Amino acid sequence: MKLIDINKVDVYFKDKLVGHLFDNGDSTHSFSYSDNWLRNGFSISPFKLPLEKKIFTCSDYLVNGMFGVFYDCIPDSWGNKLIDSFLSKQGIDIRKVTLLQRLSLLDKYSLGGLSFKPSFNEKIDISSINEFDKVYKKIKLFLNEDIVNDLDLYHYGSSTGGSRPKINYLIDNNLYIVKFPSSLDPLSIGEDEYKMNLLAKECGLDVPDCKLLNSKITNGYFLTKRFDYDNGEKKHVISLAGLFDLNPSLSQIHYLGFLQTVKTLCPEDLKEAVKRMIFNYLIDNKDDHPRNFSFIYDETNKKYRLSPFYDITSTPKINIHMMQVNGKDNPKLNDFIVDAKKVGLTEKEVTEFYKKLKSKVKQFSKIITK
User: Fold this and answer.
1) Per-residue buried b or exposed e for 95-119, using 16+ beta carbons within 10 Å of the residue's own CB
2) Which of 90, 163, 175, 268 could pair covalently with 226 via S-S, beta carbons 3.0-4.6 A apart?
């Protein structure tokens, strides 16, 4: 593989030209919509890139001068680890790989609905995976050696987000993610996440279809449906971090900001958002950074909606939540009420949500510990 130097990529959604993204050569990037997209498209980032005929520039060093909506498309630590290893094996100095080149490396299974040209990726087939224990053995070998000796692993996993090892998996033209233990995880991590998803569903929250895949060497692998890919069609998705050009590893926004964003974009989803805030604290899910909250563009109704709930885990070993409630790391019922009232919910509504969720979590905890 040879990466060519580029200072511009064309951005597409479903083969329609959205606009042009430029590397300005000074750690900043610029973007402008195409004329046709301005007439017939939608804002791909409603707060930072409104549908206007102008050149937008991002210079925030916390996101390497890249607009959040495009930063969302680039894989997190796991996918980037695979990409960096693959490029290094090709003799490419990863320190010199630009963000535009990383966007051009994305395949058709990358996060969200945007694609980029020129494209350096190869056409791949991920429909032939059927032995997940073998995949996990390849992952463990890679984690030990830090070198991709198996191209299948690169193709299956390099476009995925998150820090835990995972691969894309195609079933009947729908895309799923299969997660595997990292070198620091217990072998029960897949089963643990599966149980938390079942609990969220039991609480009435909007959770993607999921299941626990059998394994002879772990307690099982967690499989969950990707909500940005439906029946072969990709959807435009932007995270809370992407909406505001935030670095997801920093606490730059808290639950009130999340609720205010939901109220602005999709007020009909506000109660669901409040329930997720409460639920994350009740189950001790401290992996609540702003990349774990997303919005999907509904092309039929021409508006954004809150995405299904995802990355639902209990993380008691992490010290504090990424997002606070009413300025506190360990909020009580009154703190949830304070933040929710600021976006229009009543004390009675929040109290009812809290008591019902707490009861469900308590009941479920008794069942799974038997």
Assistant:
1) eeebbbbbbbbbbebbbbbbbbeeb
2) 175
| pLDDT beyond 90 at 370 | no
Amino acid at 158: S
What residues have CB less than 8 Å from 20, skipping those under 6 apart? 8, 9, 10, 11, 31, 32, 34
Q: 121 CB contacts (<8 Å, ≥6 apart)? A: 104, 105, 106, 107, 108
Give the domain ranges of the chain. 9-72+96-117, 132-230, 236-362
Which residues, in sequence order, are bridge partners of residue 10? 20, 117
Alpha-helical regions (H) of 250-292: 255-265, 270-282
Chain mean pLDDT for the chain:
92
Confidence of residue 308 (pLDDT cuts 50, 70, 90): very high
Name the most confidently modeled range: 15-19, 126-130, 142-146, 167-171: 15-19
- pTM across the whole model: 0.94
Fold of 132-230: Phosphorylase Kinase; domain 1 (3.30.200)
